[in-house]
Task: inverse folding
């Protein structure tokens, strides 16, 4: 999780606060060692080495839990979100560095190894089998959210409940600061240089944003996002930014990515099926920002709509 980490917390005893933050950081490092896709020794990478060999592999609690959750989201979106997108994401990583599109045959080859249906779970042993050779699980769309929730949890265990964790722009909000009833989070405008006009005023929830603001590649004048539509294998080309508020950061993170792929019409209706969950979808079309919100966005974000703070 190569993302900047920021923790804000309140506690009358500085020693307790320091200890809680140290434990939160240690927990995030521990999860990084499980989910990091860039590290060949991570638990996920080692699991993927067994793809297509017929081996079933026992996995850690964290990997099991996040995999089961990710497969549920993959099913619910009929694969618009797909935790097995790894082989295609790797192609796009290379494309970003080389600034050219991979040849079509590489996409065809990668697509053979993508499909959440090819993950077999053995709940009684908490074991996983990857059925196709070359499969690569990719938790890039959910691991930050999961790490935030886990870190807030250990801080609570240390007695520090009033806390905010910001991992690369995805947030976990614990209890609000003393004498306040919410945290105030600004949603960055999609147009560069423009000041924010949307705010989330809430506590005890997750807030995640997905978009191509930082990670994209321009090839032949076309801008491709690091979020890929698994059905085509191509990085999204609509310049969008999706912010989701949900009861926890894991769900917010997953939905923000999924809604980016599903787009507003389908995505926001689906968001409405989750309790206490809402989303804001911004899309830059030329100079104009298109705005879409799910039914409960205004209600769940403190009734600000698009008003100023
Ligand atoms: P950010 O890292 O900017 O917060 P996201 O949470 O949206 O963004 O995660 C993007 C990452 O998710 C990509 O870098 C990739 O690893 C992974 N990914 C890309 N497309 C998909 C997809 N369709 N389904 C699941 N994961 C995806
Ligand atoms: Mg995400």
Result:
């Amino acid at each position: 999780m190569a993302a900047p980490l920021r923790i804000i917390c309140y506690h009358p005893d500085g020693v307790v606060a320091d200890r809680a933050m140290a434990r939160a950081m240690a927990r995030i490092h521990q999860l990084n060692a499980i989910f990091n896709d860039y590290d060949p020794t991570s638990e996920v990478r080692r699991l993927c080495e067994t793809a297509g060999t017929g081996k079933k592999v026992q996995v850690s609690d964290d990997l099991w839990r996040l995999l089961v959750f990710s497969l549920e989201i993959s099913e619910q979106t009929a694969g618009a979100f797909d935790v097995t997108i790894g082989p295609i994401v790797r192609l796009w990583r290379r494309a970003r560095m080389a600034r050219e599109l991979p040849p079509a045959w590489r996409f065809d080859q990668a697509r053979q190894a993508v499909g959440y249906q090819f993950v077999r779970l053995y709940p009684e042993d908490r074991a996983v089998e990857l059925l196709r050779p070359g499969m690569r699980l990719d938790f890039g769309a959910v691991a930050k959210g999961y790490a935030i929730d886990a870190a807030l949890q250990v801080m609570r265990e240390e007695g520090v409940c009033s806390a905010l964790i910001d991992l690369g722009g995805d947030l976990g909000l614990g209890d609000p600061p003393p004498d306040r009833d919410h945290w105030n989070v600004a949603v960055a405008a999609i147009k560069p240089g423009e000041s924010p006009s949307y705010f989330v005023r809430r506590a005890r929830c997750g807030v995640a944003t997905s978009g191509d603001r930082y990670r994209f590649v321009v090839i032949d004048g076309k801008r491709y996002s690091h979020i890929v539509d698994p059905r085509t294998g191509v990085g999204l080309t609509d310049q969008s930014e999706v912010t989701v508020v949900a009861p926890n950061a894991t769900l917010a993170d997953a939905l923000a990515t999924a809604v980016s792929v599903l787009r507003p019409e389908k995505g926001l209706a689906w968001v409405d099926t989750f309790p206490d969950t809402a989303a804001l979808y911004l899309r830059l079309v030329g100079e104009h920002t298109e705005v879409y919100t799910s039914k409960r966005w205004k209600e769940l974000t403190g009734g600000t709509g698009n008003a100023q703070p």
